[in-house]
């Protein structure tokens, strides 16, 4: 019996913009940087002082690998500063119990992956981090795993913590009586060290999971090497770590479409084969696969290859978030997916939809305003 499941819960997050920045805050936005509070880790102009950090790559790898078909995978993305909704979603799936302040992991050996952007937009970014940091340890003690990946909002915060578009993180720090620079961004703080140790991808039983999914045809080894180089150099705003809207690892939209903006079947060869995986999960883009109103969650082919979106626009008040669960695994890697085709086209991969096992109303497709790319300063269409 196929156990693929979407657990839905109504979320009430505001719709805001955000990505990674290639420019100093005062230059890229025309707005003064937010005031991080007076601290000895802050410069006179309000920006945070750079600080060196040596990451232990053996203990904190760039890509986490788990190969165990006896374990159940849960995945979601883009929590964006809403700990209550996150906790309720995990509680409804039987992964946690207790309370937000005193959570308990009851998911056993299950693997929970959050594909980045846990910060910003919502008002309680640090409460989300508190929850994840506690559950990470509790899951490990129980033989399970919580893997919180970095997204473009985490990378942007490490690159330019006082950027105006990250003001919600400052608000969360002030609500706790903390200094943004000294208590949150500094690698000597618990939050700063934890953020700097985030992996950027996970490979779980033949499924590659990252924030935007845009691997640019790289192998896993090449991805690891590029990120390790950027981090070791302290270059959080480097071309790989930040990128541009046209090639960013963390912030690229619609890398999976062809020239007519339709899902491109050749992406399976171009993206999955270099990674040596069967499927890919990604967040970042709640509008993925909705352009033609033919699918809500993923598209794949008869061989079981698939791209699966995790960002179900939970930062939009009219949408619902979803927690993805997979307990049935293909012998050749990846999850066993439902085979309900929606409008398959001759000569192209069939479109499959998880709506046959989707509980509750499907999320509404979004059309977004034109916003500036933090890295290039150019406008692009984004559901954020």
* Mean pLDDT across residues: 75
**What name is given to the CATH topology?**
Purple Acid Phosphatase, chain A, domain 2
Which regions have little confidence, pLDDT < 50, spanning 5+ residues?
A: 1-40, 291-295, 340-384
How many structural domains are formed by the residues?
Answer: 1
Q: Compute the number of strand runs.
A: 15
Residues in helix, %: 10-25%
Write a concise synopsis of the structure shown.
The chain is globular. 22% of the residues lie in helices and 16% in strands.
Could you characterize what this model shows?
The protein has 384 residues and is of the alpha/beta class. It has one domain (5-381): Purple Acid Phosphatase, chain A, domain 2. The protein has helices spanning 25-28, 83-92, 125-141, 152-159, 167-175, 180-185, 190-196, 220-232, 267-275; strands spanning 5-10, 63-66, 73-76, 96-98, 103-105, 111-114, 145-148, 201-204, 207-210, 279-282, 298-300, 306-309, 320-326, 370-372, 379-381. The strands form 4 sheets. A 6-stranded mixed beta sheet has the order 2-8-9-10-12-11, with helices on one face. A hairpin with a 4-residue loop joins strand 4 and strand 5 (103-105). Helix 2 (83-92) runs parallel beside helix 3 (125-141). It starts with a strand and ends with a strand. The model is unreliable at 1-40, 291-295 and 340-384 (pLDDT under 50).
